[in-house]
Amino acid sequence: MHHRHIINFFDCVKSRRTPNSDIFSHVRNLTTCHLANIAMRLGRKLRWDATTQEIVGDDGYIDRKVLGSKVFGNDERMRALTTAIGDIAAEVERVIGGWRAELPVDRIAIMEAVNLIEAAYSQWCDATWLVGANAEVALPRPMELNGLTEEDARRRIEPMNCISWIIAHVANQYRSFFVDWPAGRQPDPRYAGYGFGTPATQPPLEEALALWRDACRDSEPWLHAADEAALRELPAASTRLRENMGSLLVRCISHTWVHIGEISSIRQVLGHRPPQFVDMHGWQYPGTETS
User: Fold this and answer.
1) Rounded (10°) angle between helices 163-175 and 245-269
2) Cα torsion for 211, 213, 215, 219, to the nearest 10°?
3) Are residues 259 and 187 in the same domain?
4) Residue pLDDT, tens place only, 140-175
5) Which of 54, 51, 73 is nearest to 63 (CA)?
6) How far from chain centre, in Å, is Cα 240?
7) Which of 102, 131, 157 is the last residue of a domain?
8) 180-189: b or e for each residue (b if 16 or more CB lie within 10 Å)?
9) Which of 16, 151, 248, 281 has the most crowded CB, counting CB atoms within 10 A?
10) Residue 250 lies in a domain
């Protein structure tokens, strides 16, 4: 049935109908796999709220990451949260003002807060420092404060890919799978720095987008002409993936969605409103109902 799903997908791209195996059924299936993997790693059961698409905390405490996903980028919800917990900005200003009034002129007060800069709280400070540290210096802090193992702490402080690198990385796969490999040609050197296992870099966004546009444009001839026979063929170029072109297409779709999720996570951390990529059939990202 594998190749029949691929043919159905291509037909639906042309007709704009919903595929037999659509993204929503895939989300439900993949969520089950992710939850099973998380439970296995934690060594305990999980409580899953299918309505809100959230793991419910066993201890009843608020998960700051879940809370952030609901309020960042949504002015109405942020105002409601501010009303519920009080005016954080006013409290920061009050504390700093109290230090100025009480401390001698030769004393220094230091406030450690990760949001001093992004929330503009630094306007009440005489100086603001953004301090960076290597992993060995940074590791002990989350281990001590949050009771984390070294492995968990290291996972939290390791850098993630930047958005522009992810775009170029996905473009590299499109180019390889649907342009270079079917023709048996050598890879385009412009994409050499964005393959699997290459060092993370921070290319200019416009440069990455140019690679993406070129890869999409150059991939269209093969994708539009592909039929069942083409999907069964092995790529002409010798590759480490001994898979036919249909399997590579499925791999590419999954790979693209994984990295779209990664970009959405980065945007959430930055406080950006998640984009609506496609017609969501009435479904919205939690926390964006008013968008």
Assistant:
1) 170
2) 180
3) yes
4) 877 887 677 887 777 666 666 788 999 999 999 999
5) 54
6) 27
7) 157
8) bbbeeeeebe
9) 248
10) yes
What ranges make up the beta strands (E) of the chain? Answer: 48-49, 54-55
pTM over 0.85: no
Q: Tell me if 93 is assigned to some domain.
A: yes
Q: How many C-beta neighbours within 10 Å does residue 177 have?
A: 24
> How far is 10 from 250, CA to CA, in rounded Å?
12
Average of per-residue pLDDT values in the chain: 77
Do residues 280 and 23 touch, judged by C-beta distance below 8 A? Answer: no
For residue 199, name the pLDDT band (cuts at 50, 70, 90): confident
Instruction: Count up the domains in the chain and report the number.
Output: 3
Q: Return the residue matching tokens 């992810």.
A: 166
Residues of the domain holding 222: 163-269
Q: Tell which wins on pLDDT, 17 or 237.
A: 17
68, part of any domain = no
- Say if residue 183 is in the same domain as residue 234: yes
Q: Which amino acid is at 56?
A: V
